[in-house]
Specification:
With about 200 residues, the chain is α/β, with parallel strands linked by helices. It is built from five helices and twelve strands. The longest helix has 14 residues, at about 20-35. Bound molecules: glutamine.
Length: about 200
């Protein structure tokens, strides 16, 4: 006899371009650290049907103009916009989540009321690292890696700003969504992934 038991937690990582495997590894690590007692799957998403049953979606960093084009090409724009779970967006993902961006080639998802400057740190500081205080995050500053990072230059009243630098806002939460200018999937510190998952209230 075969019994069907649904998976408790399903996390999809948009796999059109960018650092996909790092996100999968980071979510697996976060789930592991959050304890046992539930089943989970973390997998790549490429087509609208892949989203079915997902509790969360990660939109990785990469090149927001390219990811945007591929989202449209793969008919993913509306399915992501109407996705009912939480979205964890990093770097180029943060650009895509915005309402407004300084580059008309990006067809933003318009899911977080913020204006984003795509390459806010310019050429001189294409990549750098910084220890960031993050609102409400226990355990001290977060070691953040910025790679051609964007910032939000303004955010709507309902958007919770978690961290900012001189150039602008680098971490926000909005409802079930989290958007970060930097790359938490690269540092082995899963506190932000865990916080995102806790907010979704899907773990038993
Ligand atoms: N600034 C880049 C963009 O707009 C994002 C860089 C990144 O994801 N590392 O696409």
């Amino acid at each position: 006899m075969r019994c069907y038991k649904p998976v408790d937690v399903k996390i999809g990582v948009l796999a059109l371009q960018g650092n996909v495997s790092e996100h999968i590894e980071a979510f697996l690590l976060a789930l592991n650290r959050m304890g046992q007692g539930y089943s989970s799957e973390v997998f790549e998403i490429r087509h609208p049907a892949d989203l079915s049953g997902c509790n969360a979606l990660a939109i990785p960093g990469g090149e927001s103009t390219t990811i945007s084009r591929l989202i449209d090409k793969n008919y993913m724009y509306e399915p992501i916009r109407s996705f009912s779970g939480g979205i964890f967006a990093t770097c180029a993902g943060m650009v895509l989540m915005a309402t407004r961006v300084d580059d008309t080639r990006v067809h933003t998802l318009d899911l977080i009321d913020m204006t984003v400057d795509r390459n806010a740190f310019g050429r001189q500081r294409e990549s750098f690292e910084a220890d960031l205080p993050i609102k409400g995050l226990d355990g001290g500053p977060f070691h953040a890696i910025f790679i051609r990072a964007p910032v939000a230059t303004c955010a709507g009243a309902g958007v919770s700003v978690l961290s900012r630098m001189d150039q602008g806002i680098v971490a926000v939460e909005y409802g079930n969504h989290m958007a970060l200018s930097f790359h938490p999937e690269l540092v082995g510190d899963t506190r932000l992934h865990e916080r995102f998952l806790k907010n979704l209230r899907i773990l038993p």
